[in-house]
Amino acid sequence: xSDSQTxxxxxxxxxxxxxxxxxxxxxxxxxxxxxxxxxxxxxxxRHRVLDVACGPGFLTMAFARQCGAxxxxxxxxxxxxxxxxxxxxxxxxxxxxxxxDAERLPFDDASFDIVSCRAAFHHFLRxxxxxxxxxxxxxxxxxxxxxDMLTSEDTSKALYHNNIERLCDPTHxxxxxxxxxxxxxxxxxxxxxxRPQTLLHYDVDEWIEHGGPSEVIAQEIRGLLAASxxxxxxxxxxxxxxxxxxxxxxxxxxVLRPVEA
Length: 261
Description:
This protein is α/β, with parallel strands linked by helices. It has one domain (3-151, 173-199, 250-258): Vaccinia Virus protein VP39 (Rossmann fold). The chain is built from eleven helices and nine strands. The protein has helices spanning 3-17, 19-24, 26-29, 31-41, 58-64, 77-90, 127-137, 155-168, 178-187, 204-211, 215-226; strands at 48-52, 69-74, 95-99, 112-118, 138-149, 190-194, 197-203, 239-241, 244-258. Strands 1, 2, 3, 4, 5, 6, 7, 8 and 9 form a nine-stranded mixed beta sheet that branches. Helix 7 (127-137) links the parallel strand 4 (112-118) and strand 5 (138-149). The longest helix has 15 residues, at 3-17. The chain is globular, with a radius of gyration of 18 Å.
């Protein structure tokens, strides 16, 4: 079995385990944030949208409210089951969810007006392959939306940050810095047309819950983050607020077009 197949199996196991906690996270369900992402793409009623690594489907459904049809794909059946249940609850009839590997999207070339991926690139072993697939299935005049966390441009801080992420969730591959994303897109023949950036804030104990590590590892994570309070070793602005350990990381939403468009 190849490394990528093993990693995909691990992702399925991890996200099946953490489905409840992940689906309840504020950043997963934030309607305002989801609507803002949809607005960035200019999605309209004539557009067909693909949402890659859709998880429980909240962004896919936000697109469905604005466009003609939306398709969400994910590798984890538990996430897709939750997404389908939520679609039925909301009574949406222009959404479908399918199982798929982000490196091998089961769609013809130029099938979608907009192709999105939110909060997943840090899980991809080969992000360049995912970008290439997203570009392939997008129409020549289409748009890509890639939204994800950013790590520090400081290599030592990025290593510290990524180590903490992997302890919490072993399927974390690597968070990229803004400059790494920009090189990734340039190599794929994509140009950035918009790049708004924000800060996402987390309570450490609530964040640890979504990954579900053992208590021994959870304590190691808390120790690494606490050691970053004074010197910001992680680049995560770790601090205590009302006795609670908290941190923040930057996140960016890149709206992209093919260079030739």
